[in-house]
Design brief:
single chain; 75 residues; alpha+beta
Length: 75
């Protein structure tokens, strides 16, 4: 199973990408695979897992991390 999130957040997308790339490259328990791309001010977060629960857990973790990052940027 695989899900792709396209997140377009304008001028903070590059900073968000640089923050997430470190997280994506970390060694962690393998519930699935996560990759990230940055293109035209949009992030493409691809998450794949063999199980629905793994897909849900990874999606929730990354979306919560992205939310925390976005709410910490000055307006």
């Amino acid at each position: 199973m695989e899900i792709i999130f396209k997140i377009c957040v304008g001028n903070v997308a590059n900073a968000l990408y640089r923050s997430l790339i470190a997280e994506v490259n970390q060694e962690a328990p393998k519930k699935g695979k996560v990759s990230i791309e940055y293109n035209n001010d949009c992030l493409y977060l691809t998450i794949s897992s063999d199980t629905l629960s793994g897909l849900r857990a990874l999606s929730n973790s990354y979306l919560n991390l992205i939310y925390a990052m976005l709410t910490s940027f000055p307006s």
